[in-house]
Structures are given as C-alpha cells and as structure tokens.
Specification:
Low-confidence stretches: none
Helix content: 40-55%
Largest sheet: 4 strands, antiparallel
Structural class: alpha+beta
Number of strands: 6
Distance between the termini: 31 Å
Mean pLDDT: 97
Radius of gyration: 21 Å
Length: 211
C-alpha cells in the first residue's frame, strides 16, 4: 500500500508562447463580431480580452483551451466528470492490474485532507484491507474489472481534463472559490486556480480565494 498527495500538471499551455497563442485565437475569433480584425497587433489581445471579460461576453473566451492532468482520488473525479463541457481520459481500473510490477505490486491511495488523527488510522487500516482483498481476488483468477469493486473512493487515479477557458472559470468558481466545495476538491483546485491566475490574469483573475 502506498499513500500519495494530490496534485496537478498543466499539460497545455506549457509556456508563454502557448498562452499567447490561445489569447490571439480568442482575439481573432472575438473581433469577427465587430469586424475589427484590422486592429489586431502583436499586443492587442490582452486589452481586447480584458474588455470582453469586463462586459461578461464570456462566449468569446471559449476559443481558448487548457489541458490539465490531475492526480487525485476516485471520489473527487466523480465530481470533476460532472462538468459537461470537458473532455476526459481517466486511469482505468478495468484494465490496470495493481498486482503487476508496473504498479509496484500495490494499490495507491489518497488520504483525505481533513481527516482527524484518530480516524486516519481507521482509514489506513480500511485501505490496507481493501488492497489485501483485491490481491486475493486477483490471485483467485478475478479480472481487474471485477476485483476493483472492493476498492474505495480513496483509490488514487489520474485524469486528464481538457476544457475551454470559460468552463475552467466555471470549474474554479464551483470547486475552488466556493467554500461549499468538498475539502479535497478545494485542496486540489485552489493551487491550480492560483497558478492560472498568475499565468493568465486577463482570463482567470476572479479574486482572492478565502481558505
């Protein structure tokens, strides 16, 4: 049994050139509405998008996209995939056999961020028991897709999420900025929101997060 922390990696845009390309695509599309393409310059995208966002004309920023790889637990991914305007690819427990060497012959879990010390021991023992029974089923000839039925929501998974900038703003409002979000979700999304706000404030600056 192994326990790891949640995390994320922005797969695209990866650098300033990528971010600039996305902003220029947004401007090029947005100026179609006004037929003001003649005003496009090397530095016109940011001020144009700033005005668009201030007017809440957010359909325009749907022309920008971001891809993020998350490491989290399966309970959190159950919530992430509820966002309709995204594309998802997730680590499959149907095909991944965690008894194999490529997985270190162990199941990996994510510990809840807000679990009290006394409950943490119960959680860990429960995960160990689930791992043991999973391997027992595999040893008796079960397929991974059948054995997975006893694995808990705390089982580590990876999910790649692609969405346009407008949808990412919506995700951040619900999953990072809102204090009603699940604590593990906020622990995952707040760092991503803050990083996006730093990398591309014209799109993602929606204010400070109350933690």
């Amino acid at each position: 049994m192994r326990i790891v922390k949640q995390g994320y990696e922005i797969s695209y845009p990866q650098n300033s050139e990528d971010w600039s390309r996305e902003l220029k695509l947004i401007e090029s599309a947005g100026r179609t509405a006004y037929k003001s393409e003649d005003l496009i310059t090397d530095n016109s995208a940011v001020p144009f998008i700033k005005k668009i966002v201030e007017r809440d004309h957010l359909a325009v920023i749907e022309f920008g996209n971001m891809i993020v790889r998350f490491i989290t637990d399966r309970g959190i991914t159950h919530e992430i995939v509820r966002h309709r305007l995204c594309s998802f690819i997730q680590e499959s427990t149907r095909y991944c056999n965690y008894s194999k060497d490529k997985f270190g012959n162990e199941v990996t879990f994510i510990c809840p961020v807000d679990i009290p010390e006394g409950e943490a021991l119960i959680w860990e023992l429960s995960c160990k028991e689930a791992e043991s029974k999973y391997f027992e089923m595999i040893a008796h000839g079960s397929t991974p897709q059948r054995a997975r039925s006893i694995l808990p929501n705390s089982t580590k998974t990876e999910i790649v999420v692609k969405a346009n900038f407008r949808e990412w703003r919506h995700i951040f409002k619900l999953r990072a900025i809102s204090k009603a979000a699940h604590p593990d979700m906020r622990a995952l999304m707040i760092p991503l929101y803050e990083r996006c706000r730093e990398l591309c404030p014209v799109i993602f600056d929606m204010g400070e997060v109350e933690k």
